[in-house]
Amino acid sequence: MPVTSIFPRLFKGPAARRWLIVSMGVALLVAVGELLIWQFDANHRAETEKELFSQLVDARALMEAEISEGLYITIGLASFIQSQNGQPDYGEIESWMAALFGQTCHPRLFQGPDLRPVREGGQQ
Predict the structure, then answer these.
(1) Which residues make beta-bridge pairs with 105?
(2) Radius of gyration for the alpha carbons in the chain, expressed in angstroms and rounded
(3) Cβ atoms of residues 68 and 107 within 8 Å
(4) Which helix (H) or strand (E) holds 5?
(5) CA geometry: angle at 28 spanning 24 and 32, to 5°?
(6) CB contact at 8 A, 120 and 102
(7) Nearest to 118 by CA among 62, 77, 79
(8) Which of 88, 122, 82 is nearest to 105 (CA)?
(9) What span, in angstroms and rounded, lies between the C-alpha atoms of 48 and 123?
């Protein structure tokens, strides 16, 4: 049994045109809604990726700073020991290392909600 025999007035005349216009309007609204949702999702995803990339750049800079300061201290200690002909006074090394350590920032020590690295003695 064809659909036109069940609803004879729905598919004939001006009612059919109204039904077609209404269905096309609903389909257009659904399509526009889906497009807006897709665009919002794409923008949100791009913003999230941008934020994550920024955090990764900060983490990389922090790790590089930590590594370079460790190398700075190590190279300084090796140079100091060489300048003492391999027989340094350990009391002198301790005071020299304390001064060297005080000049460097220690990224593993953080203070406050913005996680800024702090220097020895609480200075930022």
Answers:
(1) 119
(2) 36
(3) no
(4) helix 3-6
(5) 175
(6) yes
(7) 62
(8) 122
(9) 33
Q: pLDDT digit string (tens) for 46-65? A: 999 999 999 999 888 888 87
Give the tokens for residue 77.
């200690």
Q: What is the DSSP letter of 122?
A: S
The DSSP output letter for 12 is S
Tell me the C-alpha to C-alpha distance, in Å, between residue 3 and each of 13, 17, 18, 24. Answer: 16, 16, 17, 19
Q: Which helix (H) or strand (E) holds 113?
A: none
pLDDT at 122 over 50: no
Kindly compute the dihedral angle of the four CA atoms of residues 57, 48, 111, 123, in this order, to the nearest 10 degrees. 40
pLDDT in tens, 81-113: 888 887 877 888 788 777 777 766 655 554 555
Tokens of 46: 């791009």
Within 10 angstroms of residue 102's Cβ, the number of other Cβ atoms is: 11
Strands 105-111 and 116-119: antiparallel
> Distance between CA 17 and CA 13 in Å, rounded?
7
